[in-house]
Write a structure and sequence with these properties.
Layout: H1 36-46, H2 54-67, E1 71-74, H3 77-87, E2 95-99, H4 108-112, E3 116-120, H5 131-144, E4 150-154, H6 163-173, E5 176-180, E6 188-189, E7 192-193, E8 200-204, E9 217-221, H7 224-234, H8 257-268, H9 270-287, E10 294-296, E11 303-304, E12 310-314, H10 316-319, H11 323-332, E13 338-339, E14 355-356, H12 359-367, E15 368-371, H13 379-392
Parallel strand pairs: 2-3, 2-4, 3-14, 4-5, 5-8
Antiparallel strand pairs: 1-9, 6-7, 6-11, 8-9, 10-12, 12-15, 13-15
């Protein structure tokens, strides 16, 4: 009786379309804390799903306690900015100042109201609005007898602008001030939460932010009457009474009770998320310490930078690769990275707008890169990112 023989083996050759691809590493993703599901289940079980309910009331109250100001929860950070500018009385024919280095959502609400944006350059010390450029712009406008109506000051990538000189300049010239803290929840300026220094502030809970409601925002103000007015406008400005009666223009801007439940759970872990984002940024910094031409975004000594995104500046001549070459190398490794914001004065949409300076912002855009920064990023994933960046440059 013959014995069975194992078939001869041959090496397994995988076709190119079957080669294993490492999992995608995204730039910044939501990171749940554990209690969000309970709040959402409660909303579903009680059928509070629309723009009223216990979660939205509690989220506003909890956020107010966290930052010390009255708050109203809305559908996006952009909605909060739009309402905030309207509260300041911005309208057709007004000029509104804005840093040029920002996301377009900081500027579009100015245009929504028929006003004209005027852009200001950045300072290298924080990448935020340069107070010296602001002073020059206000002096030029004052001499011409047409002072801007307002300034939207933006806190970029989790770092506060230098607010003391900015506030002083606005007060001296009678310019109203709104803080865009969409990227800066948890950020501190001289011990005060970013977004609470100006009369009105706006926050974002977009899916890529340090905490999220999947989509949403919050408007805060020192004057509780302003918050009440914004809440009224955010629900289509329906007047009290049985009939659907309207005497004012409103918007469909209110956050839902369902999403507010997510926000409640997220707010509970904000401090942990800030600590983790900072740790990720500093681990990158330390891993690249021996790489000339690669520098972490400055950490201003006047506050706490959350490092919502880990941003670096690349000197191509020293590092051995351009910003875009590094992004391309990361993409080949299935890793998402992106440039820092493209300045508004370089955008076709706002090409006709006036800009004071702009060369610093343009340089930061040309050389700045945002690396994956999710608070859920593992050390193994970060090691993978670090290896690709190091390999892209000159060792």
């Amino acid at each position: 009786m013959g014995s069975a023989r194992a078939p001869a083996t041959t090496p397994l050759v995988m076709s190119p379309d079957r080669v294993s691809t490492p999992p995608r590493i995204h730039l910044s993703v939501p990171h749940m804390g554990g209690t969000e599901e309970r709040y959402v289940r409660e909303a579903i079980a009680t059928n509070w799903l629309s723009t009223v309910g216990p979660n939205i009331d509690a989220f506003e109250a909890e956020f107010s306690r966290r930052i010390g100001l009255p708050a109203v929860a809305v559908s996006s950070g952009t909605a909060a900015l739009h309402l905030g500018l309207r509260l300041l009385g911005v309208g057709p024919g007004d000029e509104v100042l804005s840093p040029t280095l920002t996301f377009v959502a900081s500027v579009n609400p100015i245009a929504y109201l028929g006003a004209t944006p005027v852009f200001l350059d950045s300072e290298r010390a924080s990448w935020n609005l340069d107070p010296n450029v602001l002073e020059h712009a206000l002096t030029v406008r004052a001499r011409a007898g047409r002072v801007p109506k307002a300034l939207v000051v933006v806190h970029l990538f989790g770092q506060s602008a230098d607010m003391d000189p900015i506030v002083a300049l606005c007060e001296r010239h009678g310019v109203l001030l709104l803080e865009d803290a969409a990227e800066a929840l948890g950020t501190l300026y001289r011990g005060r939460p970013a977004g609470t220094i100006a009369p009105v502030g706006a926050f974002s809970f977009n899916g890529n932010k340090i905490i999220t409601t999947t989509g949403g925002g919050m408007l805060v103000a020192h004057d509780a009457e302003r918050v009440r007015k914004a809440r009224f406008w955010s629900t289509q400005a329906r007047d009290p009474g049985l009939a659907y009666h309207h005497t004012d223009m409103g918007y469909n801007y209110r956050m839902s009770n369902l999403l507010a439940g997510i926000g409640r759970g997220q707010l509970e872990v904000l401090d942990d998320r800030v600590a983790r984002r900072r740790a990720i940024a500093f681990r990158y910094r330390d891993a690249f310490a021996d790489q000339p031409g690669l520098a972490l975004m400055p950490q201003a000594d006047y506050g706490l930078h959350t490092n919502w995104l880990s941003c670096f500046l690349i000197d191509a001549g020293t590092f051995g690769a351009t910003r875009d070459e590094v992004i391309a190398a990361l993409e080949r490794g299935n890793i998402e990275a992106r440039p820092v914001w493209k300045p508004m004065h370089l955008q076709p949409l706002y090409a006709s707008a006036e800009c004071f300076g702009g060369s610093v912002a343009a340089d930061l855009f040309a050389r700045g890169i945002c690396l994956p920064s999710s608070s859920s990023l593992t050390e193994q994933d970060q090691d993978r990112i670090i290896a690709v960046v190091r390999a892209a440059g000159r060792r």
